[in-house]
Design brief:
Tumour Suppressor Smad4; six-stranded mixed β-sheet; six-stranded antiparallel β-sheet
Length: about 270
């Protein structure tokens, strides 16, 4: 690790970087929590939170693109700030971190269609899978487990009905209907939901998939990410997938206050 990395304290509501800023450094949260927000229309949408021990902004540096979201302190805390060069030095000396990043990059280099094809065994075995609540998975889930998806908001019930939808084939993709002159996805989602501007859903937003004996939710490169049992996943965060457990699971597509909230039951 470079010896000249700079730790810095932050106060609640401090803005650490803004959407559209240059990705000129990587942050490692030592303590406290940082909110990740994205502008949607005239509103700032909370996508999730980054906590102690997690990285923030690493993919923007690696992919050489501007910040895709704003980072704002939710509490007081402390961060370690690394330049791009320092972060690359850290990767070269931390095998686990290097594996995480290589895995994420390899998945992003594939098309979403390849991901939907179900080639996710290595994904489920890698460290890029975040267990719900940070705990160990609740055992393997049998291949004949009953899986159902239900709406958790009135707006969503009005579209897909109040009765749970039985999922008998995986992967199962959830996305929105195309808007205006958008090109349709090559693979039509299994559940297509209408959305209106400012859009919260992506055309292919998330999928439910089996890998390594476990059920997972994988974000499909959506604009606003996915929350699984409170864990934020997607390209704004360290993880692209989260494991599901037996019983009821909560999935929210498009930010914390999104109306696209589901309950996924595994029996």
């Amino acid at each position: 690790m470079s010896t000249d990395t700079t730790p810095g304290r932050f106060k609640k509501n401090d803005v650490l970087f803004r959407e559209g800023d240059a990705s000129d450094c990587v942050l490692r949260v030592r303590s406290g929590e940082i909110e990740v927000l994205r502008e949607v229309g005239d509103a700032s949408v909370l996508l999730g939170r980054v906590k102690g021990g997690e990285w923030l902004g690493e993919m923007g540096v690696i992919e050489n693109r501007v910040r895709s979201a704003t980072a704002r302190a939710a509490t007081d805390g402390e961060i370690e700030v690394l330049t791009a060069e320092q972060f690359l030095d850290r990767i070269s000396s931390d095998a686990a971190l290097a594996r995480d990043l290589i895995l994420r990059l390899s998945i992003r280099l594939r098309s979403i269609e390849d991901k939907i094809a179900g080639d996710l065994v290595s994904f489920s075995q890698g460290r890029s899978v975040q267990r719900s609540g940070g705990a160990a998975p609740d055992g393997e889930i049998a291949a004949d487990a009953r899986i159902s998806l239900a709406a958790e908001t009135d707006m969503l019930r009005a579209q897909i009905g109040a009765a749970p939808i039985a999922i008998d084939k995986l992967p199962f993709v959830v996305g929105r209907a195309v808007v205006g002159d958008e090109a349709p996805p090559l693979r039509r989602p299994d559940l297509v939901i209408e959305d209106q501007e400012p859009l919260r859903l992506s055309r292919q937003h998330f999928m439910i998939v089996r890998g390594g004996g476990h059920l997972m939710v994988s974000d499909l490169g959506s604009t606003l990410g996915t929350l699984v049992n409170g864990q934020a996943i997607g390209h704004h965060f360290m993880k692209d997938a989260a494991s599901l457990h037996r019983g009821d699971n909560e999935i929210i597509a498009g930010g914390w206050d999104s109306p696209f909230a589901f309950s996924l039951s595994v029996d």
